[in-house]
């Protein structure tokens, strides 16, 4: 018995699957063998397809031209996109609902609506060399001078910055009662004083890079501060909540494709006179993978459904962490097993299992490591108790 999804959710699932299978998956290998880069006409077609499907607007309010889909629909869509390797599913920018709460009308016009139209692209600059798990340790400052902020500092691991034209940048604006005051800013990538100082290679083969930037007296209009002074971390938490849930969804999609591939290969591959699917050690790997996927999927769907029901935000936040922790750890185990089922063929870069094996690893690290998710879950448990978290 599958999880009960409405006919409109199933229709989104079908459309996202079709987009993944027809427009994205056929180009994975070419991307893998070419540093992640595809010919411009293919990239343009993928972007046009994503925009036509509405992927840049699924979370945006109807009032602003968005689709305002239930979170469950969005999770189902990102699950299908998670079936794709080489980050080809990042074909369009995506405006999130929290942005419409946080941004001024002018900011919506200059940054968020152009994202929805696929005309501007964002990247997110929070992490610094000495501030990863502990966001409060950031040292990048934004000092108010007249009607401008002056930004100084360094940010690294800025995903997709090579394709973006503005940052969401987290900085310290001062201190109050001994506490650091954070704020989030729009910063245009071409502002004077911004320098890319490194562009390291990572374990995956993506055309979206993760460079390091230095900000040297970068002047940003005060009108580019998002929300009130001190409100920055709240918006970043909204970003984390959404990203963690969507990572969980993508991990479920990746695991489903991996299990399908592993089962199909096991039935066809004959060793010592028998398909390896007949060997119980292989069956155990498939059985464990499917069982763990089912658990992760239920948790992910339920975390989304809780948001649709308007449950307490702190409880939802905890469930997003539980879904991310479970989903990312699960998908890494599944990828490892499926590579094993493929044997030597699983080590070929042409094999999607091999690409997932490398690509899924970062899902246990970014948007908060598995250890940090455990801390969030434990703190919430100690504060709220079992019943208030899981009934
Ligand atoms: C490919 C990639 C892309 C990224 N993209 C972005 C991006 O676009 N924007 C952005 O801002 N950041 C980005 N990041 C940064 C990412 O979010 C951080 O790497 C992550 O939060 C971990 O921080 P860190 O690397 O500094 O690890 P550290 O904080 O140095 O942690 C090191 C280890 O210590 C553990 N640890 C830390 N604190 C505790 C604790 N209290 N208890 C137990 N264990 C602990 C961690 O879990 C980890 O295992 C990206 C990272 C990567 C690898």
User: What's the gyration radius in Å?
Assistant: 21 Å
| CATH C-level name of the largest domain | Mainly Alpha
Specify the overall morphology.
globular
Q: Pick out the low-confidence regions.
A: none
| Sheet having the most strands | 4 strands, mixed
CATH topology of the largest domain: Butyryl-CoA Dehydrogenase, subunit A, domain 3
CATH superfamily of the largest domain: Butyryl-CoA Dehydrogenase, subunit A, domain 3
User: What topology, given as strand order, has the largest sheet?
Assistant: 1-4-5-8
Do you know the CATH architecture of the largest domain? Up-down Bundle
Count of domains: 3
SS element count, helices? 12
Helical fraction: 40-55%
Could you report the average pLDDT, rounded to the nearest whole number?
A: 97
Bound molecules: flavin-adenine dinucleotide
* Number of DSSP E strands: 10
Query: Helix-strand pattern, N to C?
Result: HHHHHHEEEEEEEEHEEHHHHH
Report the structural category: alpha+beta
Percentage beta strand? 15-25%
